[in-house]
Design a protein that fits this description.
This protein is mainly beta. The protein has a domain of about 55 residues. About 10% of the residues lie in helices and about 20% in strands. The chain has 1 helix and 3 strands. The chain has a 3-stranded antiparallel β-sheet with strand order 1-2-3, with no helix packed on it. The longest helix has 8 residues.
């Protein structure tokens, strides 16, 4: 993906461990950098559609869910048998 950095798009980078996120965007006068670190949990990203794909295009609604740290897939706890 070769997007123009000054396009007012959001460029999102998630750390290796998944608990930090940086967002870069252009507001017309300069670059805005937002850094967010979750106290607990990880940012969950949608799976890539192509093997080896490193860029994803997501809607504003999906980004809103991701940056809040909400799980995209329901979590199930395995049932324990005694």
């Amino acid at each position: 993906m070769r997007a123009e950095p000054r396009s007012r798009a959001l460029f999102v980078f998630v750390g290796k461990r998944g608990h930090t996120m940086k967002v870069l965007t252009w507001d017309g006068t300069g670059t805005i950098v937002i850094h967010k670190k979750l106290d607990a949990g990880r940012f969950e990203l949608p799976r890539a559609t192509e093997p080896g794909e490193q860029h994803l295009l997501v809607s504003a609604a999906v980004f809103d869910v991701i940056h809040r740290g909400v799980a995209l897939t329901p979590r199930t706890t395995p049932r324990r048998y005694h």
